[in-house]
Amino acid sequence: MPRIEPLAPPYPASVEQALRRWMPPGVPHEPLTLFRVLHRNPELASRMFVLGAGLLGHGLLPAADRELVIARVTARAGCRYEWGVHAATLARQAGLSPERLRATAAPGVDGSWPARHAALLHAVDELHETARLSQPAWDALRVHYPDEQLIEFLVLAGWYRTIGYLANGLLLEEEPWAVPFPEEPRPPRPARAEGTDGSDRR
């Protein structure tokens, strides 16, 4: 259970309207647990809505690039909740394949990524690890993005780090319809060696 109990229906009319505004267009699910917890503090929720909705609905970054950043930020933060929500909704709408989304949760950046996406992933990793961007990481981004998009990238990454803090700090369980977070493959068990008498010699 979350550390703070989410609001439950029936909602007051003002809360019902606010929760519906928070849900992305075309998503047929009940309001997210995160939103229902946030509306325990409706004034803060209303202020957060302005920035969150602006980044998702009126941003300058291409939708696929935006969702790639969100997936990498939330994966690096260990935020299964938000990673799974976006993987099931906006990332899919933006055209990111299941394979690409799973790769955002894997360490490193392999050579299969387009150059601009590789630059985004490297930049998110540096921000996560150091809260700074090296000059090479910045220069790699500038090849593909103008100043206004670079500013948006930094705000977007920071915003979803905040969302990760919220979801993780509240102990939110993954939505039942969300995409499960990729599990790390388990190393194979060593073969059991047996003696000539059949005894186990591990």
Structure commentary:
The chain has a domain at 61-169: Up-down Bundle (AhpD-like), CATH 1.20.1290.10. It contains ten helices and no strands. It has helices spanning 13-22, 33-38, 42-57, 63-76, 80-88, 90-93, 98-104, 115-130, 135-142, 147-169. Residues 179-202 are annotated as: Disordered.
Précis, in short:
With 202 residues, the chain is mainly α. The chain is built from 10 helices and no strands.
CATH level 3 topology of the domain at 61-169: AhpD-like
Largest sheet: none
DSSP helix fraction:
55-70%
| Continuous helix count | 10
Region (Disordered): 179-202
Domain Carboxymuconolactone decarboxylase-like: 42-120
Biased composition (Basic and acidic residues): 183-202
Protein name: Carboxymuconolactone decarboxylase family protein
How are the SSEs ordered, and which strands pair?
Elements: H1 13-22, H2 33-38, H3 42-57, H4 63-76, H5 80-88, H6 90-93, H7 98-104, H8 115-130, H9 135-142, H10 147-169
Helix pairs in contact: 4-5, 4-8, 4-10, 8-9
Sum up the structure in keywords.
mainly alpha, globular, AhpD-like, about 200 residues, 10 helices
